[in-house]
């Protein structure tokens, strides 16, 4: 046999082992069913908190008419829609990108849009549905994909790196390592190290145990390192809370963040799905004090926030999963259609726009490469509609180490950015630092886009900027100046 034939024989991909393998391209992408299953579990554990947190953000706060959605109703809708969309993403787009209610959007709805007088939750969710419909049109016309293609490679890489820092910060905040400084402290420093500058309490100990265990397993190339770290940390957390209770961080600076680890007394719940379909598609434009122009501006704000979140997240996740071919994300049009459907279904169920979750990187870090991992994650979300312990046993502190480690894996991409070109280096830098500092992927992308367009014009190289980048940069300037524009309107 010639050397050429020998080399070809060595690099030829293994034949699919079954119809399931062939459909999801499991062997082709260098994965196995066991790896995909572990990845799906890891992603669910990393995302499960959204079923608890989203209801606390949306369910408690009143709208402009004084009505609340209700925590239990939002929780049921959140888990249901997340499960459906995650499974569809796996089956149709065949990507390991799980979906759930986006934190940036739900905070925008609860803290800003819902404060408008006489604007009801059904009307607010109608704006979310309209944003999803407009996004669907942009996908079908090819505009949304054209935006992807117009972005320089260095900026795409910066998005990956920025997301890596962002999810690492999420992990550190969830674990209590990084904390917000109280306003009463009278200092300009916004964050602090631990509680009062010290690491104390069992939750911190669980995080550190999980972090060093996961690092050790990674270094030793142990399969399932992330999942083993999460499970071991959860067992330790449940044991510690049973023997030496720490309580909630709401009661003590050394308590558990949001979810107290433990074995629940009740395993099966009866979900209230009455929010499904409780949406008003026209009220914000005609029946509220906003008027058609004001409602359109709010819908535009929702649209931009969701539009660019998925761009950054999908680029980052696909880069880590190795599902980019010839510079294009595989099945990107299907990914974008499903993402647009996330706003339609999320708004239509009053659970906010559902988006690709950056925590999917946890499953990818575990080895997930195909949509089969999504089937596992989505099925667990559907079970969580009825079996509440699925999202209440694992505390943030047990999952946070995985986010930090995955963040490291993504930040390594920074070596591929062209730092010697100021027109790429400065925008890349702004993209990277703005994502964690503003807690927003979209804000980081916007800062990078505007800086790139501006610097290229200053350099006299404006012709090198794709026309779409000018349009998108202008849209971001409007988005960033939304507060001023609303002031003018009032």
Can you walk me through this structure?
- The chain is mainly alpha-helical and 490 residues long.
- It has one domain.
- Helix content is 62%, strand content 3%.
- The chain is built from 21 helices and six strands.
- Helix 9 packs antiparallel against helix 19 and helix 13 crosses helix 14.
- The protein is globular, with a radius of gyration of 23 Å.
Structural class by helix and strand composition: mainly alpha
Number of strands: 6
Strand arrangement, major sheet: 1-6
Outline the low-pLDDT stretches: 1-11
- What is the overall shape? globular
Explain briefly what this protein structure is.
This protein is mainly α.
Strands, helices and their partners?
Elements: H1 3-11, H2 19-24, H3 33-47, H4 50-58, H5 71-93, E1 99-101, H6 103-111, H7 121-140, H8 143-150, H9 153-175, E2 178-180, E3 191-193, H10 202-219, H11 225-243, H12 283-286, H13 291-321, E4 324-325, E5 328-329, H14 332-348, E6 354-356, H15 360-365, H16 372-384, H17 396-411, H18 422-438, H19 441-458, H20 467-480, H21 482-489
Antiparallel strand pairs: 1-6, 2-3, 4-5
Helix pairs in contact: 3-16, 4-5, 4-6, 5-14, 5-16, 7-13, 7-14, 9-13, 9-17, 9-18, 9-19, 10-11, 10-17, 11-17, 13-14, 13-19, 18-19, 19-20
Name some characteristics of this structure.
two-stranded antiparallel sheet; mainly alpha; 6 strands; disordered N terminus; 21 helices; globular
């Amino acid at each position: 046999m010639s050397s050429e034939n020998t080399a070809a024989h060595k690099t030829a991909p293994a034949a699919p082992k079954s119809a399931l393998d062939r459909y999801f391209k499991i062997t082709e992408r260098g994965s196995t069913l066991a790896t995909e299953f572990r990845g799906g579990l890891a992603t669910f554990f990393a995302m499960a908190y959204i079923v608890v947190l989203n209801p606390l953000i949306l369910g408690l706060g009143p709208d402009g008419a004084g009505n609340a959605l209700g925590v239990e109703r939002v929780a049921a809708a959140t888990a249901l829609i997340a499960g459906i969309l995650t499974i569809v993403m796996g089956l149709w787009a065949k990507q390991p990108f799980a979906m759930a209610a986006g934190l940036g959007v739900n905070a925008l709805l609860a803290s800003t849009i819902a404060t408008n007088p006489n604007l009801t939750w059904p009307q607010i969710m109608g704006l979310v549905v309209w944003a999803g419909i407009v996004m669907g049109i942009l996908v079908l016309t090819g505009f949304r994909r054209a935006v992807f293609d117009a972005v320089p490679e260095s900026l795409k890489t910066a998005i990956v790196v920025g997301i890596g820092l962002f999810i690492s910060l999420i992990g550190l905040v969830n674990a209590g390592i990084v904390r917000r400084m109280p306003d009463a402290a009278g200092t300009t420093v916004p964050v602090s190290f631990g509680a009062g500058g010290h690491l104390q309490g069992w939750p911190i100990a669980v995080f550190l145990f999980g972090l060093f265990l996961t690092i050790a397993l990674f270094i030793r190339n142990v399969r399932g390192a992330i999942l083993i770290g999460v499970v071991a940390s959860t067992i330790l957390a449940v044991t510690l809370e049973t023997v030496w209770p720490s309580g909630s961080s709401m009661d003590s600076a050394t308590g558990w963040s949001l979810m107290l680890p433990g074995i629940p007394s009740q395993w099966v719940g009866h979900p209230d799905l009455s929010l499904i379909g409780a949406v008003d598609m026209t009220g914000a434009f005609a029946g509220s004090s906003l008027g058609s122009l004001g409602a359109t501006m709010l819908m535009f704000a929702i649209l931009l926030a969701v539009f660019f979140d998925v761009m950054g997240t999908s680029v980052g996740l696909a880069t880590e999963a190795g599902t980019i071919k010839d510079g294009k994300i595989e099945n990107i049009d299907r990914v974008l259609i499903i993402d647009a459907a996330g706003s339609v279904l999320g708004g239509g169920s009053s659970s906010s726009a559902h988006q690709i979750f950056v925590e999917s990187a946890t499953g990818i870090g575990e080895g997930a490469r195909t949509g089969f991992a999504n089937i596992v994650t989505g099925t667990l979300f559907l079970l969580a509609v009825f079996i509440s312990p699925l999202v209440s046993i694992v505390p943030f502190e047990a999952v946070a180490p995985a986010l930090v480690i995955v963040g490291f894996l993504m930040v390594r991409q920074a070596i591929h950015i062209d730092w010697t070109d100021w027109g790429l280096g400065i925008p890349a830098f702004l993209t990277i630092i703005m994502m964690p500092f503003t807690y927003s992927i979209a804000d980081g992308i916007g800062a990078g886009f505007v800086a790139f367009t501006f610097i290229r014009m200053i350099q006299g190289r404006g012709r090198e900027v794709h026309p779409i980048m000018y349009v998108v940069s202008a849209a971001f300037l409007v988005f960033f100046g939304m507060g001023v524009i609303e002031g003018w309107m009032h």
